[in-house]
Amino acid sequence: MAQHTITLIPGDGIGPEISHAMQRVVDATGVSIEWEIAEAGAHLLESEGTPLPQSTIDSIKRNKVAIKGPVTTPVGTGFRSINVALRKELDLYTNLRPAFSLEGTGTLYKDIDLVVVRENTEDLYAGVEFEEGSEGAKGLIEYCAEQGAGVIRPDSGISIKPISITGSRRIVKWAFEYALANGRKSVCAVHKANIQKHSDGLFLKVAREVAEEYEGRIEFEDRIVDACCMGLVLNPQQFDVLVLPNLYGDIVSDLCAGMVGGLGIAPGANIGEDYAVFEPVHGSAPKHAGKGIANPTALLLTASLMLAHLGERDAADRLVNAIRAVLKKGTQVTYDIKRTNTGSTDGSVSTEEYADAVIAEL
Description:
The chain has 362 residues and is an alpha/beta fold. It is 43% helix and 16% strand. The protein is built from 13 helices and 12 strands. It has helices spanning 15-28, 45-48, 54-63, 82-90, 135-147, 165-181, 200-213, 225-234, 246-259, 297-309, 313-329, 335-342, 351-361; strands spanning 3-9, 32-37, 65-68, 94-100, 113-119, 129-130, 158-159, 186-191, 219-224, 241-244, 269-271, 276-278. Helix 1 runs parallel beside helix 13. The longest helix is centred in the middle third of the chain and has 17 residues, at 165-181. The chain is globular and about 65 Å long. The relative contact order is 0.17. The mean pLDDT is 94.
C-alpha cells in the first residue's frame, strides 16, 4: 500500500475541529497517510508577523499535496488573502468545484452532477488596480483617451482584466483532460465574448482551438455567462463540465454550490502543475469555534477529491458514499443540516459524532 505524506493546515476558527474530524475519517478509509501539520491563519500574525509562514509554503512544496481548513484573513494588515497568496506562490491555476446532489440536505434541486473548473490566476482577480485619484489612474485615463479606447471618468478607480492565451489554454485543456479522466461527456466554455471582445473573446477563441483536439471524444459548446446562469437555474442537468475565467468562475461555482445545499457541503481544490491544495470554500466561522458543532461535510468531500488526486479512487468513492448514507438517514447530522430539514436543531450531533457516523458507513 502506498504511503502518502500530506501537509495538513488546520486553519483557525472552526478549522481545527473539522480538520480533526476529517483526519479521523480519512484514516478510517485505510489509506496510509502521514500528516505533516503546518499552520496558517490570523492567529499567527503576532508570533510570526504573517498569517502564512514560509515554513508552511515549504511543507507544501516538499509534499506536493496539502489539505487545509478555513482560515481568517486579518483585517487592516495589507495581507489580502491567505488562499490567494498560496495560489500565486504555487501557481495553482485550476480551481476545481464539483457540485452534486446529496439527499438529505433540504435543497430544491435534485439529480445535479456538474463540475465547475475556474481559472485561478488572471482576469479581474489578478490584482492589477489603480486607486481613484492616483497618478497611475490618471495616466491610464489619459492614455485611453489618446488611443481612442474610450472615455473613463476622472474620478474612477480602475481594475485591469488580463486574459492570456497561456492562461486560457492551460485551464481549458485541464477541463478537457478532467472530463476524459472522469467519464464526463461535455465541456462548456462560459464567457462574455459578445461584450469583452479582446479578453473573453480571446478565452473563447482559445477554448474553441483546444476543443478541436478532443473532437469525437468530448462534446463542446459555449455559453454567454448570463445565459449560462439562467440555464443553470432552469435546468442544471443540461451541464456537465463548465470552464470559466476567474470572476465568472467564482460567481458560478457559488451559484452551483447553492443549488446543492450551500458552501457547507461544497468541496474545492486548487491545482497546478506541481502542487495541489485541497480546501472547502466556506468561512472560518469564529463565533462557532470551540463549540464542537461545526459541519465537516465540505472538508470531508474535499478530502475525497484529495484521495482521488492521490490515485486512491476506491477510498474516495467509499467516503462519498458514506457521507451520502449519513445525510440520507438524517439522524446523525450537525445542527445546520438538522435545522434545514426539520426547522429545529433538536437531535443534532456534534462534529465528532457526525464523523463517527460517517466512519461507521465506510
